[in-house]
Amino acid sequence: MKIAIIGIGTVGTGVLELLNQEKNNIENRIGESIEVSWICDLKDTLKIESNLKFTKNYKEILNDNSVETIIELIGGNTTAFEIAKETLKSGKNLITANKHLLATKGIEIFEIAKKHNVKIFFEAAVAGGTPALSSIYEGTFSGGIKTITGILNGTSNYILNKMEEGSDYDSALKLAQEAGYAELDPTFDVKGIDTAHKISLLSYLVWGKLIDFKKINIKGIDKITKKDIEFAKNSGKRFKLIGEAKKINNQIIINVEPRLIEKNDQLYNVNDVYNGIKSYGIHLGETFFYGKGAGALPTATAIIGDLYKIKNSNAWY
Amino acid sequence: MKIAIIGIGTVGTGVLELLNQEKNNIENRIGESIEVSWICDLKDTLKIESNLKFTKNYKEILNDNSVETIIELIGGNTTAFEIAKETLKSGKNLITANKHLLATKGIEIFEIAKKHNVKIFFEAAVAGGTPALSSIYEGTFSGGIKTITGILNGTSNYILNKMEEGSDYDSALKLAQEAGYAELDPTFDVKGIDTAHKISLLSYLVWGKLIDFKKINIKGIDKITKKDIEFAKNSGKRFKLIGEAKKINNQIIINVEPRLIEKNDQLYNVNDVYNGIKSYGIHLGETFFYGKGAGALPTATAIIGDLYKIKNSNAWY
């Protein structure tokens, strides 16, 4: 399969590294060879990857009929939205880690994919290195799932951890930025928007319906004080930023907010950039998935899993 | 899709119940209607399911060309082995919860399936209601997995729990039998054989190779004393029956044994009939899956997930 990667940042570099290091494992499992035909980025520095065709203009890739699948890793829902639509319309499959794009424009994007008979997979968009989405989609639909709950944003989880160690909110945020976890503009992470994107996609996988993003109630961690953290500690609990989707009388309701989590809850011990996803079904009972929520190679592992699915599974819509 | 169920015990009854209760969800996700054409069991009482065709002779089902998939739930590796082989040779797909069969006869069975171009799925064979196998197979193969470790046998886990509460081994086993967890002959559970079957299948999913079952080192919980349990408690640890597969220099080594598990280990809090599966990969890092290891409806949920895969995914061999 000939593929192209658009957006060569941390994760894109990770994908190239794994395709190289794990070539045999990857090709054995997928059942054919994988060739990166193009890489696309705005940074010139990438031209050094001399054996890969480089372009700054993604339209060049769309015109290459030999490319079967495009991996979009630029983020956001403006240019990425154009890329997604044009990718699908040109008859190519799309793999994306872009929760922002899918949670806000997913309905339109899935429609286009269906119409053009191509696939989209997005295992890396939620809980990066926690291989959960395949099992949730393929394995829980008859389990009578009523609730799905997760710690889905590593940055805010890291900040809450640092506050438990004594930092106030502002210095904890600074520590997260210095460690490379938080963006210069941390709005999406600390205000719960990133968590809302992700829980919305989990809800889609469970119940097959993408909720209007504006209907999600979102509260972030940016109002949490040292006093709140102290209070939680004294009562044997921890504050965690929780995304939760519930099905009540055929209605799906999604909330994002900081919650006090008790010691015996699986989510209590999810620390730093780890993510945890818990679900409850009237038939299936409780399940829990745990793994790294970010990082170049864990996320790249998820993207390469999507290459398997492009070749070996029907689409998820 | 027309299906047949051979073996109508706890789990078989659960499958029939879910197919009835969750009909819409199931058919929407799978993409077609599911019809149970036959049920097969040795018990006459089943004739009461008047709208389902009943037989005591599975060969009748093999001769029905309209049946596309057979769900085998009788267990063991004698009659079940015959049923599996004949199912595949007759061009029908096979879904099974039978770890004993696959861990000991899998190589031959997978060969026959390949030759006859039919599929086998077995999500319910390992950790029943923990939807883990799809994600492990599809999502971790490029993660550089080095170790996979699990609590995979609910019965022995329950017995160890009861011993922690003060019972000695014999009375804990009795309690497990009274609660319906342990069989009259509990050998496979308490001697670690069932765990060995399951870890062997997990190892197959991760590395694509089924180990000669005789090469697995197996130690059960039947030699654990009250004193051992006391010692563990006093050092802040717990005894758990652990199955572990490791890849060392391209060699896969599998061990089953009771181990002292520390408090900060994800497996420490896996209680009663719950199962936990932990993996570590040099690229992917740590992942953890948790859910019910048994029970009619959790296990039935896994089997119905396999019906999705029959229709929507390529085979796992």
Plain-language structure description:
Chain A has helices at residues 10-21, 23-30, 59-62, 79-89, 99-115, 133-139, 154-164, 169-178, 187-190, 193-207, 226-234, 296-312, and strands at residues 2-6, 35-40, 53-55, 69-72, 93-96, 120-121, 145-151, 217-218, 238-248, 251-261, 274-281, 285-292. With 317 residues, chain A is an alpha/beta fold. The first copy, chain A, folds into 2 domains: 2-129 and 296-312, NAD(P)-binding Rossmann-like Domain (Rossmann fold, 3-Layer(aba) Sandwich); 133-291, 2-Layer Sandwich (Dihydrodipicolinate Reductase, domain 2). In chain A, helix 7 (154-164) crosses helix 8 (169-178). The radius of gyration of chain A is 20 Å and the shape is globular. At the A-B interface, helix 2, helix 6, strand 12 and helix 12 of A face helix 2, helix 6, strand 12 and helix 12 of B. Strand 12 of chain A pairs antiparallel with strand 12 (285-292) of chain B.
DSSP helix fraction of chain A? 25-40%
Structural class of chain A: alpha/beta
Please report which band the strand proportion of chain A falls in: under 5%, 5-15%, 15-25%, 25-35%, 35-45% or over 45%.
Answer: 15-25%
The tally of domains of chain A stands at 2
Radius of gyration of chain A: 20 Å
Largest sheet properties of chain A:
6 strands, parallel
Write the CATH fold name of the largest domain in chain A. Answer: Dihydrodipicolinate Reductase, domain 2
Could you give the distance between the termini of chain A? 22 Å
| Strand arrangement, major sheet of chain A | 3-2-1-4-5-6
Backbone shape of chain A: globular
Q: What's the β-strand tally of chain A? A: 12
Q: Low-confidence runs of chain A (pLDDT<50, min 5 residues)?
A: none
Q: Largest interface, with Cβ-Cβ < 8 Å?
A: A-B, 52 and 52 residues
How many H/I helical runs of chain A?
12
Q: How do the SSEs of chain A run, as a string of H and E? A: EHHEEHEHEHEHEHHHHEHEEEEH
CATH superfamily of the largest domain in chain A: Dihydrodipicolinate Reductase, domain 2
CATH architecture descriptor text of the largest domain in chain A:
2-Layer Sandwich
What's the average pLDDT of chain A? 95
Domain Homoserine dehydrogenase catalytic (chains A, B): 131-307
Pfam families (chains A, B): Homoserine_dh, NAD_binding_3
Domain Aspartate/homoserine dehydrogenase NAD-binding (chains A, B): 7-123
Catalytic activity (chains A, B): L-homoserine + NADP(+) = L-aspartate 4-semialdehyde + NADPH + H(+)
